[in-house]
Amino acid sequence: MTRLTRDFFARDALVVAKALVGTTIVHQGKRARIVETEAYRGPKDLACHARAGLTKRTKPLFGPPGHAYVFLIYGMHECFNVTCKAEGAGHAVLIRAAEIEGERGDGPGRFARAMRFTRAHNSESLMTEHLHLLPRERRVRIAVSARVGVAYSGEWADMPYRFYDAASAHVSKPPKSAIGSATAKPRPRS
DNA sequence: CATATGATTCCA
DNA sequence: GGAATCATATGA
User: Which nucleotide is nearest, taking the CA of residue A77 and each C1'?
Assistant: First the structure.
């Protein structure tokens, strides 16, 4: 009853991405509070899969809003997306991290695996009994940054399309490059 | 048909 | 810093 409805998803991915932070996704009884998302805005967005037009792979992406778009990346990780705006728009929001009871859900691949999402869920409705979303229960302080892993998309790589809960410790990557933790050098072989 | 590559993660 | 690993997109 309090579930998010089609109207929630039928908006620009940019709006939905921001609105999704802090909401809870429910799948097969597992609940996860979404803390990090990224918006992908259709064919004009060179970082979005929709840039290649309607293909076998992107078919779910061009489907009606409020449905699942799942794809395999790097040959080993599933990425779960929520379709937005309107059928044919090619808009979607990637769920990058969430707080899951007793499990790690930080990182697109980890989130999808923890929530048991696979490509078999493509085009499934996100407004059903076993798969739906619930509105936020508390106010959330949302931070913004550029998207991750899309450096190849030129000017689109710098667009502030990544949203995350500033108070959560479960975001997949640090806001700035506060990554002071210098990467260890490969140790000399013994 | 052959080839290049990516909305990542893990290990050293 | 670099490998792992494969479906999809793209070009011949």
Answer: B8
